[in-house]
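Standup notes
- DV: blocked on the single-chain target, sequence here:
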Amino acid sequence: MTGQLRVGVIGTGGMGGRHAHNIRYQVANARLAAVMDVDADRAADIAGPAGADVFTDSLELIASDLVDCVIIASPDATHGDLAFACLEHGKHALVEKPLATDLDTAAALVEREAQLGRRLLQVGLMRRYDPQHVAVKEAIDRGEIGRPLMFRGWHRNPPEATPPTSKEVLVNSAVHDLYSARWLLEDEISEIYVRGTTINPERSDQLDLQLITMAMAGGAIASIEVNKDSGFGYEVGVEISGSHGMVTTAPHDTPVVRQDGHIRQSVEPDWLERFAVAYVREVQAWSTAVLEDRPEGPTAWDGYLTLAAALTGATSIQTGVPVKVDRPARPTLYA
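- DV (later): unblocked, structure below
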């Protein structure tokens, strides 16, 4: 594929709107060709300034000759079916996490892509492109901390209008952290144990503060704190302990203010601001990979394994014990 990539964006919420904006203003080798939302006016608000076509049907956009590839940023429950449609039309897709909401669908996507013999799907696990996380990975790869032995992650969100269920905390949020542990440690999750508590019983009876502990197949261990009602803003970071040292993501880069007997520092209000650079770099890398036909980034297999770990974590909550994570053989396409 040569020339400028014609991208169709499905969904005009926070992520869809951000991807559409980044394609229009930040990605030289791609242009916004189409926007889909069931609300035609919302789609037109984003598509109009870019001269993009408006769709109200996702499958029509995917099938359209107006688009070369697709970004799927619609509600989670739609991801699996739309990713399948992209595979059947032979179109590359950047699928926001999770790849699917059930493991059978995710497994079927992996199987179908393997049958096609081409990597067409990339999952939006964007920490792979976050400068802070990349710096940690580079330090590990240089051998600066020796053999990585422990992963610690924290993922703290401001409260949402509709509190998530205990399962949604894992499937919609913790998948990012589960992927980070696999990526940074270069290892797979073999066992997971999740305990949780309710932050504000007046808002929810679900476990919206969770502590996830994991055993990795190669002997490392990991822990993740996921807080969906932090009350102070948005904060994500990791720390890796190794045989010869430790590496941690940098602290907030906002100014430290000393005033009236206090020291204070602002935190980002949400993920769109915290990972603004990562979202740009993600789409830049994805569009270049599509044009050059050399897929990179988190795969459908990564999407499957992180979902498997998240759903196994939900089982751990129900049973109250650590649960082994079932991991089938890796298809050769993702070797």
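- Follow-up: The first strand starts at residue 5 and ends at 10.
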